[in-house]
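Researcher: We're teaching a course module on how sequence relates to structure. For the next exercise, students receive a sequence and then see the predicted structure as tokens, so they can try to spot secondary structure elements on their own. Here is the exercise chain.
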Amino acid sequence: MTRLANKHVTPVLSVVPSVPKNRRSLPPKVRPAPGPTLIERFRAGWDPRLWPRVVGRTDGILYGTVLALIVFGVVMVYSASSVRAQREFGDGHHYLIRQALYAAVGIPMMTLLAKVDYHRYRVLGKPLLFLAFALLTVVIAGAGHQAGGAARWIPIGPIHVQPAEITKIALIIWLADSLASKSGRMGSFAVGFLPHVLIASGLVALCMLQPDFGSSVILMLLTFILLFTAGAKIGYMLAGGAVVTPIAIWLVTSSDYRLKRWEAFADPLKHRMTGGYQIVESWMSFGAGGLTGVGLGDSRQKLLYLPEAHTDFIAAIVAEELGFIGFGVLVFAFLLIVQRGVRASLKAVDDFGVYLGIGFTMFVGTQALTNLSVVLGLLPTKGLTLPFLSSGGSSLLVNCAAVGILLNVSRPRRLSAMSAEGAPIVNEGEGRGSAARERVSVTEGSGRPQRGPSKEGASKGGTTRRASGGSARESDFSLEGGAQ
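Model: And here is the predicted structure for the students to work with:
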């Protein structure tokens, strides 16, 4: 038995390789394939052959709701501003004409952007971000128009551009691009969380120097919402919130006007004739309106009792003239926009579409929620307008642009193989320089993509393609670029 055992053991031991003493004799490590260059990314971003094929129309309910709000906003701006316009400009139609002109530009722009494929915006993320930094820097450098103790506008002829609104659009597009390209590394603090928070913090710091506390809050909220959507770790987000909260408290307590505004919010009646004046007058508008309102155009609060009746507090005039029913319909319209936007975003065929749609949906939703909460006295006054209703060109045009892009995201698309040979293929896989791929199999009838790693693409570092004789029911698609 011993000899037999030795006969069996000896061959096994003889095939065990000896460990080399010199590490240089080890085989060289296989380096991952290099990622796409900037020029390749730019060309791929403008190549329609890499995009999913559009097979349906935009969301008609979303489009109709926004269109109705814009038209209703023009009517309400006239109703809320006629007395003030007559006193300041000698023409009661001043704000009506301005808002109607902005609406005449915003509606066609929204319709046009709804037809432009949202994949085109991916290569514009970084340029728009640089533009946002430049515009904010110009404003705080002294070129901004002063109003209400803050420099938030850049005068361009008769139009005043608000860089903070452009910044929100730029941040959403850049975040959508960056998060989509790092979809496999969002659990990493150094890759998935920290860079995005640092960029957003830089924009927030520039907004605070204007100062614009309301836009700063919206920018940070949008950042954390998109990080949560992309799968960033909750622990990192909670830690970030723990850092931001004391900074926000310090910013409030260190500023006299912010502290007075907070004290007025805590007890508006005590500060009835000072910081709480707007909130109390807004409450009076709600009380005077009752259930059905005093009638369109018959508001008493717009007779110079309620400050900013045609801008920040236009919802209070709606409640007074149309009552609780009219205000309830207004709230329902914004809820419908959020619901349709989230629904369209979750049906997007790629991660970039999901993040882009969620970002623009929350962009409209958070502003509406903040403004309505201020009007009801649930939040301190922040100077944020009500989307599509408040008077102002920058707000209306930027919101129309945001909804136009969201409408394009809502268009149904089908993932199909790219027919042209030799087209640039750009993929950003998991890991640094990795050529990892993802495959999306689309089955006829269901229309739902089933995501899973492509073994062939991950092993070879190339793009999997459907063979010429393969089934027509399945196609390969790169989540980062488009059809392969």
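Model: If you want an answer key for the exercise: Residues 1-16, 418-484 have pLDDT under 50 and may be disordered. The beta strands are 53-54, 145-147, 150-156, 159-161, 413-414, 438-442, 449-453, 477-478, 482-483.
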